[in-house]
Amino acid sequence: MNTYTRLARLALLVTCGAALSLTGFAATPSGTTTVTSVAPQTGPSKAVPETIDASKLSNAWDKTFPEDTRVSHHKVTFHNRYGITLVADMYVPKTHKPGEKLAAIAVAGPYGAVKEQVSGRYAQEMAARGFLTIAFDPSFTGESGGAPRNVSSPDINTEDFLAAVDFLSNTKDVNPDQIGILGICGWGGFAINAAAADPRIKATATSTMYDMSRVIADGYFDKGKTPAELQAYRKGLRQQISAQRTADYKNGTYAMAGGVPTTVTDDMPQFVKDYHDYYQTKLGYHPRSFGSTTGATLSSVLDFANMPITVYAEEIETPVLLIHGEKAHSRYFSEDIYKRLKGTNKELVIIPGAVHTDLYYKMDVIPFDKLARFFQDNLK
Fold first, then answer.
1. Are 323 and 347 in contact (CB under 8 A)?
2. Which of 3, 111, 163, 359 is the most exposed place for a label (fewest CB within 10 A)?
3. pLDDT of amino acid 40
4. Closest-CA residue to 302 (of 139, 155, 140)
5. What are the Xaa-Pro dipeptidyl-peptidase-like domain coordinates in residue numbering (predicted)?
């Protein structure tokens, strides 16, 4: 054990010991100390039993995209380290042979969407090209567990990707050394964070990426804003959300941020109209999607404003493919991450003429051939 490891373990033991001394005992009025009802931890912490039985979930086709007869699909469940059970659709190519171990891809996004919308479309198409894939509902959303509902978190949502890797690493039809992830829209940022954290992820792709921490902390189109302007913006945001937390606690309910507008007006930015045309029409509406309905809990915003999710992007050593539309309002997120990535294992692909939401559903615009080659080359 090297010096760094010994010091890290010592720090952990000291910290944990202090925490146990605080939580395991309580002072009495006489000043003596009594043991509380919290039992001491005497062995490994056990995983919480999963709360959802995949066999009891419907496998009826309820997606916003057509079913592909080249692929089979069924529901699966897995858990993250916070004890939340996540539900996913697993897509497997019908060419898969018994005992064959496939390269696998975990797919999620966009922010506010569910697996029946965009991520499932990507996962199904990648399965048709030979990969085992899962498209999962994030914690607190869709068919996945967790309460209160429609919470989002920079920490827990990154953990959801890592939990998907845990699951795929233990799936009998998957080669655990050939696992990649694909994040769409806001989940592109979580994918970058996950790739920086977890060397088990051998290749990472993002499509029409948002950095949710950046856009919440700094607002849209932050280039050109002064440090003082950005700080003032965040101060106002913190004051608003902190006051809302007080009200939420008092009321016993959580205020919602609101989903994509159900109607459009002439003065709305074009990208908001584009979101409406996807989330609020037959094209992409789904009742379990908080993008289509309530939005996330408003108090979720505070965590993103204070916790940057791409801070260690420069330390990613595995291949990264960034895909974005030429006309997308969000293009700068991918371009800026690309500039920060090191080495030669990075690529930025700009799709001519495409706007942000074109990469949600337009099969003739999403570069699936490029995605397939990227994962074939790097998951081997």
1. no
2. 3
3. 82
4. 155
5. 83-353
Question: What are the backbone angles phi and psi of residue 107, rounded to the nearest 5°?
Answer: -125, 140
Angle (CA) 90-55-139 rounded to 5° is: 60
In 3D, which of 61, 71, 91, 336 has the Cα closest to residue 215? 336
Which secondary structure element, helix H or strand E, spans residue 161, and what is its range?
A: helix 154-169
Residues ≥6 apart with Cβ < 8 Å to 241: 298, 299, 301, 302, 305
Q: What 3-state class would DSSP assign to 35?
A: strand
Residue with tokens 């920086």: 196
Q: Which of 234, 212, 195 is nearest to 112 (CA)?
A: 212
* Residue 258: count of CB within 10 angstroms of its CB: 13
Q: Is 243 helix (H, G, I), strand (E, B) or coil?
A: helix
Question: CA of 91: how far to CAs of 115, 144, 216, 247, 368, in Å?
Answer: 12, 18, 33, 43, 16
Residue with tokens 């539309």: 325
pTM for the predicted model, two decimal places: 0.89
- Closest by CA position to 150, among listed 325, 339, 327, 289: 289
As a whole number of angstroms, the distance between CA 169 and CA 100 comes to 14
User: Domains (ranges, CATH) in the chain?
Assistant: 54-216+309-378 (3.40.50.1820)
